[in-house]
Write a structure and sequence with these properties.
Number of helices of chain A: 0
Distance between the termini of chain B: 39 Å
Strand content of chain A: over 45%
Helix content of chain B: under 10%
Largest interface: A-B, 26 and 25 residues
Radius of gyration of chain B: 13 Å
Number of strands of chain A: 11
Oligomer: heterodimer
Order of helices and strands of chain B: EEEEEEEEEEE
Largest sheet of chain B: 6 strands, mixed
Shape of chain B: globular
Structural class of chain A: mainly beta
Radius of gyration of chain A: 13 Å
Number of helices of chain B: 0
Chain lengths: ~110, ~110
């Protein structure tokens, strides 16, 4: 059983650029959540996708957007990058929207904005 | 009201000792309280979780104690081992794994 995989693992961008981060969910999981983890902080919920539809969003501006594909993989897009967007972006999959079970996290994509 | 406050920020415990990490919340609608463990360079992994209908849950060396009236919950790691050295996060949500609200984390170091 393949776990959650994310790409790229590290990337460096400059202010104003755009970035796309990718996530392959664990086999059998139809729900993907994205979290932003700043250095030394706990993760913050960005949004969740369930069966290709956004199923809730945290307190992030519209320049953070996402997609989920028919195979349940997902993308996080961030436009007009700001210095404060530098963080570890975590993708987590689960077998349902709110099953009460665990989230299975990937190892994250570390974004540095210069 | 959406915050989860976690303490201490860091903790050093001797091998074989008990590690205790505390969390407090405000939103009484929270009904799911997981603890996640994160090693450097890795994503968080679920350690143990509790719902407010029980006051304690134990899995191996890990125990969650839950005090609904005080709106507090804690993680106890018995017989702490060097392999337990990691960052621990408490979290809370309404209805399960949707939109978890996380504490700031506790960096635990177990000294051999």
């Amino acid at each position: 059983e393949t776990g959650v995989t994310q790409s790229p693992t590290h990337l460096i961008k400059t202010r104003g650029q755009q970035v796309t981060l990718r996530c392959s969910s664990q086999s059998g999981h139809n729900t993907v959540s994205w979290y932003q983890q700043a250095l030394g902080q706990g993760p913050q919920f960005i949004f969740q996708y369930y069966r290709e539809e956004e199923n809730g969003r945290g307190n992030f501006p519209p320049r953070f957007s996402g997609l989920q594909f028919p195979n349940y993989s997902s993308e996080l897009n961030v436009n007009a990058l700001e210095l404060d967007d530098s963080a570890l972006y975590l993708c987590a999959s689960s077998p349902g929207r709110s099953s009460g079970g665990e989230l299975f996290f990937g190892e994250g994509s570390r974004l540095t904005v210069l | 009201q959406q915050q989860v406050k976690q303490s201490p920020q860091s903790l050093i415990v001797q091998k074989g000792g008990i590690s205790i990490i505390n969390c407090a919340y405000e939103n009484t609608a929270f009904d799911y309280f997981p603890w996640y463990q994160q090693f450097p360079g890795k994503g968080p992994a679920l350690l143990i979780a509790i719902r407010p209908d029980v006051s304690e849950k134990k899995e191996g060396r890990f125990t969650i104690s839950f005090n609904k009236s005080a709106k507090q919950f804690s993680l106890h790691i018995m017989d702490s081992q060097p392999g337990d050295s990691a960052t621990y996060f408490c979290a809370a949500s309404i209805g399960g794994n949707y939109q978890l609200i996380w504490g700031a984390g506790t960096k635990l170091i177990i000294k051999p």
